[in-house]
């Protein structure tokens, strides 16, 4: 079995554990753990300038992204709009405290974030408050300000203060929030927000294209543009856009889901399968595995085993049973296909295509091979496996959140040192993907379990380095080395020394790293770099 297949098998079993454990989590909550479901409402524009109304909608977008990377679960824009429609409220209303509570209760939110902003003389001043729904208590104002072009930094700072208000033990540092990816210059950010809020498909694509033109690496805008193009049935354009989403961005899973759909609709089934497979290796949910199996089947390949995995994870979806039955039928086995079609009809009795297929299978149970295929397809009847064409951002985010909960429950049973090892590995995995806030959360959790973990301390050093806090990164590296020699900490020091043009010190750091880990790629690369600059290596 290849490493990829081992990984996928492990993740699939983990996903099945997720669905079986979700009920246990909801029925037996830890009374010491505060709720983590957060609703961010658009902030109120108090500038008197209606051209700045778009900033109101930028707060939920930025804050949601930052909270999702920090162990909170946020309520999506679509669900927020559903609640407003359900309560008969316009989207642009200004909520009173009573109305805010009604919205929160409709969506089962634990916290609601409300706020306002003012802009004068090129500066934005922001004030936010946290409503704790169960206690019906409103926090004191949380404030921040910045030059307007640094709006994204201001929003990140407010997000950090809110996180600390909700959870005083929140472990991620402010500088990590400020250095988190996802921002763009103000004009690109404005076009992005105006684009996602537009009700016109043409205007939405126009705005988002303008945002991407100004900021080609703006992952959120690339995703939104690709989805808008897909919804407009511009499948080739959508695929080209979605393929540009950076692989290390948090939205890459959603981007690849729609990339798979775009390629599928262009009949590029092999490319679609690869896109769905990438998502499945990270988050093997039934809808993703189903689409991968459908793309595989459209290439004439046997997808029965993959369809069985889908049903093992979600046995109550009629389309999944229909797909499995059809895949088995393509193998020339009507006797084993029939029970799956029967199950599909029990779950959805008025499925006319499944009813017709059941009738044809029953009439041709004695046939196999080509005669069976011809009999099923007689009269132009051509049933096809059913693909999932929608991506539920909320359900995917909730699944990822619950995976974290299940994992935390499992790790809590381990000795502290082993917990630290596991959390440090998770932190390193996040760091490799460029997910710095997520990485720091795991490293800090590791240190909480084992304050003497040199590896976790080295992880924090790398986070500080990426956040541009060089002095803190050096301090954390030295603290890590005092606990135990390790290559990761030496390499942080090497990069910091090289940044200061101290080639001799960098050389010493690299030599120390290579003694501990002779195959360390970063150390080998820096050694060559130092030699090319005339620095001898001991």
What report would you give on this structure?
The chain has 26 helices and seven strands. The chain has 538 residues and is an alpha/beta fold. Residues 1-34 have low confidence and may be disordered. The longest helix has 25 residues, at 3-27. The chain folds into four domains: 1-30 and 282-407, Tetratricopeptide repeat domain (Serine Threonine Protein Phosphatase 5, Tetratricopeptide repeat), CATH 1.25.40; 34-180, Rossmann fold (3-Layer(aba) Sandwich), CATH 3.40.50; 182-266, Serine Threonine Protein Phosphatase 5, Tetratricopeptide repeat; 408-532, Alpha Horseshoe (Serine Threonine Protein Phosphatase 5, Tetratricopeptide repeat).
**Low-pLDDT runs:** 1-34
* Cα end-to-end separation: 42 Å
Nearest-integer average pLDDT: 87
CATH superfamily of the largest domain: Tetratricopeptide repeat domain
**What overall form do the CA principal axes indicate?**
globular
Rg over C-alpha atoms, rounded to the nearest angstrom: 26 Å
What fraction strand?
Answer: 5-15%
Query: Which CATH-level-2 architecture of the largest domain?
Result: Alpha Horseshoe
Structural domain tally: 4
Name the helicity range. 55-70%
Biggest beta sheet attributes: 7 strands, mixed
- How large is the count of helical segments? 26
CATH class designation of the largest domain? Mainly Alpha
Q: How many beta-strand elements?
A: 7
Query: Which structural class do the helices and strands define?
Result: alpha/beta
CATH T-level fold name of the largest domain: Serine Threonine Protein Phosphatase 5, Tetratricopeptide repeat
């Amino acid at each position: 079995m290849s490493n990829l297949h081992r990984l996928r098998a492990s993740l699939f079993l983990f996903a099945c554990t997720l669905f079986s454990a979700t009920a246990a989590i909801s029925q037996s909550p830890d009374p010491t753990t505060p709720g983590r479901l957060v609703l961010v409402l658009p902030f109120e524009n108090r500038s008197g300038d209606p051209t700045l109304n778009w900033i109101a909608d930028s707060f939920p977008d930025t804050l949601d992204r930052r909270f999702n990377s920090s162990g909170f679960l946020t309520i999506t824009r679509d669900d927020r709009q559903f609640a407003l429609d359900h309560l008969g409220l316009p989207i642009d209303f200004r909520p009173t405290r009573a109305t805010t509570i009604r919205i929160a209760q409709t969506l089962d939110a634990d916290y609601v974030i409300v706020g306002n902003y003012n802009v004068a003389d090129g500066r934005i001043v922001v004030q936010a408050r946290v409503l704790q729904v169960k206690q019906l208590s409103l926090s004191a104002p949380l404030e921040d300000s910045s030059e307007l072009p640094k709006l994204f930094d201001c929003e990140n700072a407010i997000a950090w203060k809110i996180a600390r208000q909700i959870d005083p033990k929140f472990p991620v540092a402010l500088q990590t929030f400020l250095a988190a990816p996802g921002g763009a210059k103000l004009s690109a950010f404005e076009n992005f927000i105006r684009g996602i809020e537009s009700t016109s498909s043409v205007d939405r694509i126009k705005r988002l294209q303008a945002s991407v033109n100004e900021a080609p690496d703006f992952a959120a805008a690339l995703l939104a543009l690709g989805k808008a193009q897909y919804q407009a049935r511009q499948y080739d354009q959508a695929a080209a856009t979605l393929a540009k989403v950076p692989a290390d961005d948090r939205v890459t899973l959603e981007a690849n889901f729609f990339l798979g759909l775009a390629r599928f609709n262009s009949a590029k089934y092999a490319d679609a399968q690869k896109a769905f497979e990438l998502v499945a290796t990270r988050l093997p949910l039934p809808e993703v595995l189903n689409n991968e199996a459908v793309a595989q089947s459209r290439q004439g390949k046997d997808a029965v085993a993959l369809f069985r995995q889908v049903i093992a994870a979600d046995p109550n979806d009629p389309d999944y049973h229909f797909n499995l039955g059809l895949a088995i039928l393509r193998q020339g086995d009507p006797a084993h296909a029939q029970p799956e079609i029967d199950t599909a009809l029990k779950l959805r009795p008025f499925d006319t295509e499944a009813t017709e297929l059941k009738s044809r299978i029953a009439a041709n149970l004695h046939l196999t091979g080509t005669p069976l295929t011809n009999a099923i397809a007689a009269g132009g009847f051509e049933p096809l496996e059913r693909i999932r064409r929608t991506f539920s951002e909320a359900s995917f985010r909730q699944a990822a959140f619950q995976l974290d909960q299940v994992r935390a429950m499992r790790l809590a049973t381990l000795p502290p040192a082993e917990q630290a090892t596991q959390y440090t590995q998770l932190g390193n995995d996040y760091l490799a993907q460029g997910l710095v806030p997520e990485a720091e959360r795991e490293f800090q959790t590791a240190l909480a379990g084992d304050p003497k973990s040199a590896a976790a301390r080295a992880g924090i050093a790398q986070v500080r380095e990426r956040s541009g806090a060089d002095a803190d990164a050096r301090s954390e590296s030295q603290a890590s080395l005092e606990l135990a020699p390790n290559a990761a900490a030496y390499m942080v020091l090497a990069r910091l020394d090289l940044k200061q043009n101290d080639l001799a010190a960098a050389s010493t750091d690299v030599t120390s790293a290579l003694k501990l880990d002779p195959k360390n790629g970063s150390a080998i690369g820096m050694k060559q770099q130092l030699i090319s600059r005339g620095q001898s290596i001991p």
